[in-house]
Amino acid sequence: MADVIQLLPEYLANQIAAGEVVQRPASVVKELLENAVDAGATQVQLIVKDAGKQLVQIVDNGTGMSPTDARMSLERHATSKIRSTEDLFRIRTLGFRGEALASIAAVAQVELRTKKRDQDTGTLLLIEGSQVTSQQPVACPDGTSIAVKNLFFNVPARRNFLKTNAVEMRHILDEFQHVALANPQITFSLYQNDLEVFNLPAGKLSQRIVALLGNGYKEQLAACEEVTPFITVKGFIGKPESAKKSRGDQFFFVNNRFIRSAYLNHAVLAAYEGLLPRDTFPFYVLFLELDPKAIDINVHPTKTEIKFEDEKTVYAIVRAAVKQSLGIHNMAPSLDFEGDVNFAPIQPLRSSPGGNSFADDFRPDALASAAARAASPKGQAGQHPRSPAAGTAPARPTEQAKRDLEEFYRSLGQTVVPDLPAAAPQIPDFGPDQHSAPPVSAILAAPELPLREASSGPGSRVIQVNQQYLLVPVKSGVMLIDQVAARERILYEQYALGLERESAGSQTLLFPRTVTFTPQDFAILREVSDDLHALGFRFAEFGPNTIAVEGLPADVPNRDEKELLEGLIEQFRTHAGPVRLDRREKVARALARRVAGSSDNARLSDKEMAALVDRLFACAVPSYTPDGRRTLVLLELSQLQDFFRKP
């Protein structure tokens, strides 16, 4: 029987290796930028044409290469970074595998010019599909220039899998951003189709952050530093008020190498616990320095995943460093032991001008009476069994007194129900330890959800629960509707129809408003601009990474356009689903979720609740959101009866 195992030709082996290292133009940018940094360059220029498909060129003023080294650099597993197995555990350079240039040369046309400082002439190499077609001396400046042209010219199937120019350019900007942030001491510039996108002079890390991510961070940076014998943590974190709906501006560097780590990200979020608004994420650029022997970076060809020898200790130190920085910069809550600010709520709780008894302020009936008065729109007492007689005229509490009273209720674990109507139904007396409306646990066995009737008038059927859910009686029992999820389903079907017809309504702003984005977000915005126009957004480019917003979709509340578009871009970027979605589907889903989320915890009128229920059941798929979350739950009558049976 003939032998069947054969040694692959070198060009084919290189193409297979290139499949791991060179996945898209951004992979070329990453490898070449890291080589320039390893070569000791102080000035690095990146030139991109056609989102890297036509040209990716890196020009640096590093050490350069001799003619022999230039030729050897194109061979597989040829490197100047390591010599032995022990060197793998002492790696300080960004590259060490010796595969990048060989892999790039296997799938592109490469022009390499390089010159060492102590030599009179440089070397010009022309490579095409792993084959060196020309090598000759040439006059060139010190350093190295590598031009990668027509990527995947000999692998058309791989080229067909590349995304649109906007998507590929976004990935290139990400890689450029990582290397530029890690090396603020180096001057970087980026040109896209002969237009300058970035010109970053050498300077401090804080200056580099502002130059890359925008002036919005200028006043929001807080230094973070923790030095231990095991690890050093340095960098900057963002103040809690600068937190965004997007996760994009979060960077970890280990020994100056950008990494991705959900574990360390959790450590940072744990330090911010209790300080961030809901569904927001903090900014951070953190550098971890530790002995190379304590980490393993030889995990994946992209080298963005590493393993720590003692990851629990790293987690604890990162969390402590961030928490300490928040405390030093007075961003974490603290107690003031000198002033009486913590005891201010005591004063306004007296039930009447004549009330001078300290004990009376904390009697349950006094608290309930104060709550009824504070909730009354006209400052009058509500109809509570223990309210003062109608003939008395209690003083109307100030707005501060109302807030203090509500805060006091919350500290006792009680429910605060603001803005009850003047003719609110009577609140039954459930004893001295309960001063709010009865919990819905009597009906749904969910004590954490307070109940608010939708209307005090007769015949009311829809009930709003905790300003989040709608309780709708039906023949077979009761139906509980998540009002945010329901609105998301309604809006999604509306937007999908608008995209199909390309004729969505738009509300014109009185004055156009300019919005500036990061280059990464602006690249995504360009990618989906046609679909956003079809949804009703009206905007035009207004300078570098800036648009002038002239109109919004008809159903979108008139709010901060920057926050709305940034949130939409983030959801479009990170949306994950079980199936591959086309671009329009992702845009419709992202906008529906973003706009629906703006109505979270919204108080609805009778008509609004009725309209929401009607529009939900007019949808093609009323029971689920576009990504499969439930919009409603049906509780059968038998289930309700089970709640009241004896155990």
UniProtKB/TrEMBL annotation:
Which SUPFAM superfamilies does this one have? ATPase domain of HSP90 chaperone/DNA topoisomerase II/histidine kinase, DNA mismatch repair protein MutL, Ribosomal protein S5 domain 2-like
- Domain annotation MutL C-terminal dimerisation: ranges: 462-604
Residues covered by the DNA mismatch repair protein S5 domain: 209-327
Instruction: State the Gene Ontology terms under molecular function.
Output: endonuclease activity
Keywords of the record, alphabetical order, are:
DNA damage, DNA repair, Endonuclease, Hydrolase, Nuclease
Q: Which domain of life is it from?
A: Bacteria
Positions of the UniProt region annotated as Disordered: 369-401
Task: Give the family from UniProt.
Answer: Belongs to the DNA mismatch repair MutL/HexB family.
Q: Which NCBIfam families match?
A: mutl
What is known about what this protein does? Answer: This protein is involved in the repair of mismatches in DNA. It is required for dam-dependent methyl-directed DNA mismatch repair. May act as a 'molecular matchmaker', a protein that promotes the formation of a stable complex between two or more DNA-binding proteins in an ATP-dependent manner without itself being part of a final effector complex.
Report the protein name in the record: DNA mismatch repair protein MutL
Q: What does UniProt list as this organism's lineage?
A: Bacteria, Pseudomonadati, Bacteroidota, Cytophagia, Cytophagales
Q: Which gene encodes it?
A: mutL
